[in-house]
Every structure is written in C-alpha cells, then in structure tokens.
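Per your request, structure below.
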C-alpha cells in the first residue's frame, strides 16, 4: 500500500505486478479517496516504464551534447565546479531550487544541504508558486498554516461550501466524493466542471476576487449574519477589517467584478443559513500580486460567520502539489527551517543548529524567493550555479522566456530528475533519480496527515535516490558522511528532532506508528516519559511516553495558535491587478489546469492515455470574442502579452466571459502559457501573478500549436 504520486490528496493506492507489469488499484480503506482515483492516478504506473526514463548520469561535453557518464565522474565534476564558484564568488553564488513533490525526507535534507554543505541562503522551491499566499494569510489569521485544519472527511457533512478559485472536479476529482452532498458556491471566471456542479456560480472578472470577498463580508454584516459572540470571544481586529468592507456595498462590487447583486446576496444567505459551512480557497484566489490579501478577505468572511475553530465548519486551502504541505514545513523554503520555524528567530536557529551539529551563526539568513532567485541567475550578485531537484522551472515559472535565458547564462546547471524535462535538457549535468514506487519516505497531504510512501520496485539502471545524491555531494564538499544519511528512516528521525517544539511538530510521529496504521496529523509532539522511564519500544528516541500523542486532526477547536488564542482579522483593500487590459492588449488571460495533465506536464505528457486526452496547447475563447478577432474553432491563434506570445489551438466556449481567455500551463516549447504570464509578485508571499495578465489574440495562418 502506498499513495498516488500526483496531487495533495495523496489518494491511497495498492501497487502490484501482473504479467511483468506494475498495476494500481485504489485502497478502499483510505478515507480521502474512498476507493476512487482520477485518470492520472489510474495511469500512474505507465510513467515507471517511460521509454525516455533517465538511467545514467549525463554530462554536457565540449560539443554541447549531453553524453552518458559515471556517477563518480559526474559528482566529482559538480563538486569541483561548486568549489570553484564558491571560492570566486562566495557561497551565495550557488542556488538550490526544490519541489513540492519531494518527500519530507528529501525536502528536509535539501534545506540542510543548502545551508550546511553549501552555506548558501539561496534556496527556494516551486511550492512558492502554489499556495504561498494562503500560507501567509493563514499564518497571520490563525498563527499556523495547515492547508486544511480538519480531515477531508469533515467536508462530507457540510451543507454549504464556498470554493473561491478552486476546480477540484478537474484538479483532484476524488475530492468531489466529499463535496457532493453540499450545496456549492463556486467563484471562478470560467464555467468549470466544478462550477457546473454548483448551486450558485459567481463569475467575476479576473483579478477582482478581493473586491468580491469584501462585498460578501459587507453583506454578511449589514444583513445581520455576523456571529457577534464568536467575534467577541475568539477574534480580534474586526473593526478595522469592517471599516474597509463597509465601503464595498453590493452595487459597487457589481460594477467592479461583474457579479450581480442578487447573486452576492444569495451567496451570503446560503453560507449564513447553513449549520455546517466551509470557505475553501484555491490557486484562483491565491496566484495574484494581491493573493495574500485576497485569501485574508475570504478568511475575514469565514471569521465573521463564526466558521473557523468549530467542528463541522471552517476555512481551508486546497493544497495543490503532492507534498505541497510537508514540502514547505521542513526547510526548502527561503525563510524557513524545519518544523515551520523561521530563519530570523534566534531560538529556532539555535535549536536546528544543535540538531545539525553546527553553530547557529554558521546558518545563513533568508534568501530570495523562487521567482526572485530564478530572475537573479547569472546576474551581478546573483547565483552562478543552480541545483534543481524535483522541479521544471523552464516551463512552470512566469515570464518563461526570461527564465530560460537566465538558466542558460549559468556557469553550472545541475538537474536531478527521472525524465528529461525541459529544464533537464538545458543542464550541464543531469542526475537520474528514483521516483515514487522505487523509494521509501513520507508525504504530508492537504489535511496535514503524514503518510508512508513504500517501495515496490528496484530503480532501473543506475538511478539513485536524491538522498544518495545529496550525500555524495556533501562528502565531496568536505562534510562528514554521517551528517547526510541516505536511509529515509534515519533522515526522518532527524527531522523529528529538528521539528520538535516547532509549529509543524513531527517529533511524536515514527515509521513504526505509521506502519501500524495510525492516522497521524501534525502537530504530533513527543510526549515526555515520566521519571525513570526510557520510552516505548519501537517508538523512536528515548524519552517518549508509552502513550504517545495521538496527533491533531482538528486544529483551533479550543484556541487559535496565537499567544492570546485569538484569530486575527486582516485589514485589506481591493486594488487592481498589476496589469489590466488596454488598447494594445484588450483581454484578460488566466491560466490553470486540466483533468488529464499535471503541473508542468513533464510526467503526464509522457503517458500515452493522458497525452491522447489532452495532446496540445489550447486557448478557450468566447464565440463572440472569437468573431471579433477573426478566430475559428480548431484554428491556431497567437496569444500575446507585453512579455511574449504563445501559440494555441482555439476552443470556442460559450460560458466563458467575453473579456477573458483561458490557457492551461502544462505544455512546453512555443506552447508554454508562462511565456505570457506576469511575474509581478505579492509583496508578502512573493507569489507571481499567474492568474491574470493583459493579452491580445489573433489568428496565425498555417501555424500549429
């Protein structure tokens, strides 16, 4: 038994072999997917045998071609180049870019490697592009960031659920099993499959979700739905937040967003009239230059109605990547240390440094965020070398042409992957690493539950685990071999010690408990043993009680995680997106996912069944908009912004807003949606504005997407 390698649901699966091939079936007992899998989950084993699987290290020769090499030669070359670059330019001349799909053990070890073996502050990961805005807003409001502070199964008892910028019917279909009893309110510029299933669909102009959230709060207050007892006893800051929302009367909101007043009122009445209700946000609300404020506004709405902190209702964020939750908790984020500790906290630095066997002052401070790091590559004062693990920024980063140029300008680019992604094909050294069914470890799903990944297969060829790669490089860079273990269980035990006492405390979780079938949600602290006790056998480090902590499936029931136990309202105000349509670029473009593809597509585009279902780049356009711009169904179109253009096949969609076009971001080459997206950053979360930019669209005679 293990878990699907894709989204943060981490659906339970059972892997086996039939007639020499790997097959998968759903784990009927796992509560998150309840025996269901999406198309990607069913076809996941096909990736294990993809014809272009990386099985040997590749090194770029003098002729510019990647050629097979030995592991010893490849690691020796990388270490020598890194030493030279650090000696000439300093430790921050080396950058590290991680991924939200790495196991907890790999994410933890990557952060430790960057700060201890390399001594660099320049580490971040692609999860910055996923839910960093929700993390910043949730931490501010509640004192703690866990995507869902309650089990997924709680959603099955809801009467009403508001989904702001989320399309789980395509992005995580098994989740719909928990949503099908509730009346759904969906906020999305598109009539997505999720919106089709909704009782109410609000269709705002791209970039105006914040104004809509302020307007919903306004109506909740003036129509008498505010939970005053909850506000008085469990929150602070309502008055300042209300002063902002008071100016967003319904007619003003309609003018800005396009959402009719009657639909605004109906949404508030549905939420307020339900005994059990939830507000959930997704990337559509978060991937903006004001994404943190937008999520904060939806949290304000939930707090006003008294939803968070009581069983059967609440606020949550639908984390996207497989280990999007655990991946940001243990140190591969630019400003964080394991256990969700902050790099700027002296006590946190001292604790983690002691676990790592280094002095606190030896740890570098916070570095650049993901886009800032990529944008600085090869520039004066920026990294001259980059190590990439579990990410494909050549496709996934905004303003992709710029990032491609920056990657090409490096003195050294090293990519560890199991397929030749678009970023790997740019690299000086490519290292073949194991994938999901070939490795042990843990993942943390969107509800904060820690899960075991189990190995079924022997890795092909000479593929090694990322932990072995980091060990080999660390030793060559002069670190003691024991400081970077290669066994996942040993790394996890160290992670437990490093996280102890932190906001994301895993110290009470062990492989033994997980293998015994316990459902363990963090925080799960180690419970100290009584006098004379030495800890329970098989439970990990000595000092644990014979009755270990049960974990925390539901947060905030008694108090929020701030010192005073109160949730904080945020004082937020609507502002325009960084870029709005004008005469040259008269339309909004927004990006997102489709059912058959995942993230940058490096994995799913290699699976024949998924490639057949979604084979090429397309752009959705309203028929009236298409008519004005000379476009026809199935024809090629060029979509251009101030940063570049992409070519896509036209799909006419009558339910789309006439001022908006939609593009999926899974495709490569000239069909990259991120050739046009805006890298404008949220000032707090550093999230790029993927969800809205100004574009024009025109036919392209004879072109193919």
């Amino acid at each position: 038994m293990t878990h699907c390698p894709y989204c943060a649901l981490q659906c339970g699966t059972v892997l086996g072999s039939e007639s020499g091939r790997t097959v998968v079936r759903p784990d009927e007992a796992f509560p998150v997917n309840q025996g269901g899998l999406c198309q990607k989950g069913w076809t996941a084993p096909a990736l294990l045998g993809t014809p272009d699987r990386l099985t040997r290290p590749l090194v770029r020769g003098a002729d510019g071609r990647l050629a097979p090499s030995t592991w010893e030669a490849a690691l020796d070359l990388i270490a020598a180049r890194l030493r030279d670059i650090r000696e000439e330019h300093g430790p921050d001349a080396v950058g590290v870019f991680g991924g939200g799909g790495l196991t907890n053990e790999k994410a933890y070890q990557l952060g430790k490697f960057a700060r201890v073996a390399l001594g660099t502050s320049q580490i971040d990961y692609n999860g910055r592009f996923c839910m960093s805005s929700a993390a910043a807003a949730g931490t501010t409001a509640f004192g703690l960031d866990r995507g869902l502070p309650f089990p997924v199964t709680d959603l099955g008892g809801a009467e009403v659920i508001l989904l702001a910028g989320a399309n789980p019917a395509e992005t995580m279909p098994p989740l719909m099993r928990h949503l099908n009893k509730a009346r759904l309110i969906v906020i999305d510029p598109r009539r997505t499959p999720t919106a089709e299933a909704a009782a109410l669909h609000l269709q705002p102009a791209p970039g105006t979700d914040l104004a809509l959230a302020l307007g919903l709060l306004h109506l909740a207050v003036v129509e008498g739905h505010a939970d005053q007892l909850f506000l008085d006893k469990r929150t602070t800051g309502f008055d300042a937040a209300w002063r902002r929302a008071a100016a967003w009367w319904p007619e003003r909101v309609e003018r800005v967003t396009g959402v009719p007043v009657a639909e605004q009122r109906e949404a508030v009445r549905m939420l307020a009239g339900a005994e059990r209700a939830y507000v959930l946000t997704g990337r559509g609300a978060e991937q903006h230059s004001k994404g943190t404020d937008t999520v904060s506004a939806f949290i304000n709405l939930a707090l006003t109605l008294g939803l968070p902190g009581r069983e059967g209702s609440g606020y949550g964020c639908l984390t996207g990547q497989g280990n999007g939750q655990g991946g940001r908790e243990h140190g591969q984020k630019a400003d964080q240390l394991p256990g969700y500790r902050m790099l700027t906290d002296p006590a946190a630095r001292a604790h983690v440094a002691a676990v790592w066997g280094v002095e606190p002052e030896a740890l570098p401070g916070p570095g650049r965020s993901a886009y800032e790091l990529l944008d600085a590559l090869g520039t004066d004062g920026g990294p001259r070398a980059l190590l990439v693990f579990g990410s494909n920024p050549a496709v996934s980063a905004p303003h992709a042409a710029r990032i491609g140029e920056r990657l090409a300008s490096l003195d050294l680019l090293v990519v560890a992957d199991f397929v030749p992604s678009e970023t790997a094909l740019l690299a000086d050294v490519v290292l073949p690493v194991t994938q999901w069914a070939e490795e042990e470890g843990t993942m943390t799903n969107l509800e904060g539950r820690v899960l075991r990944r189990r190995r079924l297969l022997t890795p092909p060829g000479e593929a090694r685990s990322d932990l072995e790669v980091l060990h080999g490089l660390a030793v060559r860079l002069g670190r003691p071999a024991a400081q970077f273990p290669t066994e996942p269980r040993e790394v996890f035990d160290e992670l437990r010690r490093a996280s102890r006492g932190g906001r994301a405390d895993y110290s009470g979780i062990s492989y033994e408990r997980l293998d015994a079938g316990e459902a363990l949600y963090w925080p799960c602290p180690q419970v100290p043993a009584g006098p004379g006790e030495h800890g329970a056998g098989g439970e990990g480090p000595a000092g644990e009680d014979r009755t270990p902590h049960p974990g925390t499936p539901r947060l905030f029931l008694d108090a929020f995680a701030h010192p005073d136990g109160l949730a904080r309202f945020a004082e937020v105000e609507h502002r325009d997106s960084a870029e709005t349509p004008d005469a040259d670029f008269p339309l909004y473009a927004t990006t997102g996912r489709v059912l058959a593809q995942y993230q940058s597509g490096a994995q799913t585009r290699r699976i024949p069944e998924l490639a057949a279902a979604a084979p090429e780049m397309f752009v959705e356009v309203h028929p009236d908009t298409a008519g004005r711009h000379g476009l026809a169904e199935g024809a090629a179109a060029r979509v251009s912004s101030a940063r570049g253009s992409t070519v896509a096949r036209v799909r006419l969609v009558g339910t789309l807003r006439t001022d908006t076009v939609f593009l999926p971001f899974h495709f490569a080459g000239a069909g990259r949606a991120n050739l046009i997206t805006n890298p404008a950053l949220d000032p707090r979360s550093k999230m790029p504005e993927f969800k809205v930019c100004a574009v024009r669209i025109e036919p392209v005679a004879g072109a193919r997407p």
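The longest strand covers residues 645-652.

Regards,
D.
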